[in-house]
Design goal:
Elements: H1 2-5, H2 14-28, H3 38-63, H4 65-103, H5 107-116, H6 120-134, H7 139-145, H8 152-164, H9 167-224, H10 230-269, H11 279-282, H12 284-300, H13 305-315, H14 319-333, H15 338-344, H16 350-362, H17 365-421
Length: 422
């Protein structure tokens, strides 16, 4: 029976999975818990995993290996949709908190009203946030306690707003720029994901041909004693080199491309942390824009530049950026200009330094900081767009040239072989 059904046997997991979810619904009801319950979360996750595994077994049994790819695509899309919905809910919650802070309304009351309008998952996190706020936990820590997903810019806006007593202006400024950033960054990010996957697929195809296909043709041509063209000889020699010596290099390149594609998928879903060693340097200018926007708010609130830099170094969400800001603040304490200090840690470039120094002399530094923050993001996106426009056609031409070379090198001897046999 097991040999006959194969993966279809996994459908049996649907019975305990549905039973577990039904028991949880009967015991706990639809009302969300006001306290984070790890056991409840684990049981709910286990039930959903069993039901999802049963569904995957049915698809895999019906479609074969293609079903596995379909399941992976469905899983990625489903996780992406859940993450986007959660982020939109949490952005709406933070917008309500910003309005409440501006009107002087107690935050727990606003969050409770927000929970009444949400579904079970959103209401559950809102109730956890209310409990943390009622216990006197600061808002930024309460957001982590309630598992509220916040971007680096949003978390920084909350911390700066709490530190300066300007929570509403900080959240309003972040809300105005987040939509524009999303519309600019997301399309560019999708193009790079496509390019990485194209590179990975092309590399796997080339390796497969060099290791498994070309050696078979080599033996076949040797048995017939054909005089091979120069292109075919080059292809066979390259295949032998790959099989004997070059496979570790291609293996490392494949693993690097695979890790990059995997990281892009996790980032597309929304799970990739920007605090990783390489990613934090790729987004250095993005962090610089957040710092400039926070400095503008601090200076508007009457803070000095040096005190604002030291505050940014203490409260920035990412440890790497805190280290950069701490170095910049130390340089300012030793008498160095703050614009030069930020440029030396590469949070701004020379153009930003000149503009900010001129704006400080003219007395409109906060406005210049906000404008430079937007300009920094735009220029960074233009830079990534330029690199994409250069790399994309070169990569496509390189893959096309490889395919053309392999096809011609293997086709020419076959023409001679067919003519000889006829």
């Amino acid at each position: 029976m097991n040999d006959t059904l194969g993966p279809f046997n996994l459908v049996l997991l649907a019975i305990p999975g549905l039973a577990l979810l039904l028991c949880m619904r009967l015991l706990y009801g639809r009302k969300p818990s006001a306290v984070p319950d790890s056991a409840l979360l684990m049981l709910r996750t286990a039930g959903r995993l069993m039901v999802g595994t049963a569904f995957g077994g049915v698809v895999f049994a019906g479609l074969g290996p293609a079903g596995f790819i379909l399941i992976l695509v469905f899983l990625v899309v489903q996780l992406m949709v859940l993450d986007r919905r959660m982020r939109l809910e949490h952005q709406a919650l933070l917008a309500s908190i910003g309005v409440a802070a501006e009107k002087g309304i107690p935050l727990p009351e606003v969050v409770l009203a927000f929970a009444d309008e949400m579904n079970s998952a959103g209401a559950r996190r809102a109730l956890w946030l209310v409990q943390a706020l009622q216990q006197g936990v600061p808002l930024d820590q309460a957001l982590s306690y309630a598992w509220i997903k916040c971007s680096t810019a949003t978390r920084m806006a909350v911390r700066v707003g709490i530190s300066l007593g300007a929570l509403s202006p900080a959240l309003r400024s972040q809300a105005e720029t987040s939509h524009e950033l999303e519309t600019v960054v997301r399309p560019m990010f999708m193009r790079w994901i496509y390019l990485l996957h194209l590179l990975l697929v092309g590399e796997f195809i080339v390796i497969f041909i060099m290791i498994w296909i070309v050696p078979v043709f080599d033996k076949m041509f040797a048995e017939f004693g054909l005089k091979l063209p120069v292109m075919t000889i080059l292809l066979i020699n390259f295949s032998r080199w790959v099989v004997d010596y070059g496979w570790p290099i291609f293996f490392l390149l494949s693993m690097g491309a695979f890790v990059a594609c995997l990281a892009s998928i996790f980032s597309f879903i929304g799970w990739l942390p920007r605090s990783m060693p390489i990613l934090n340097r790729l987004f250095r200018r993005y962090d610089g824009a957040i710092v400039l926007r926070s400095l503008a708010l601090a200076i508007r609130r009457g803070q000095s530049v040096h005190a604002s830099l030291r505050l940014m170094a203490d409260i920035y969400p990412l440890g790497t950026v805190r280290n950069w800001l701490s170095k910049a603040a130390d340089r300012v304490e030793r008498g160095e200009d703050w614009c030069a200090a930020l440029r030396k840690v590469r949070l701004i470039d020379r153009t930003d330094e000149v503009v900010l120094r001129s704006a400080q002399g003219a007395g409109n530094l906060p406005w210049a900081l906000e404008e430079m923050a937007e300009s920094l993001l735009r220029r960074e996106m233009y830079r990534w767009q330029a690199w994409y426009n250069i790399i994309s056609p070169l990569l496509i031409l390189a893959l096309g040239a490889c395919v053309a070379f392999v096809c011609v090198a293997l086709f020419l001897p076959l023409v001679g072989l067919i003519q000889g046999l006829s």
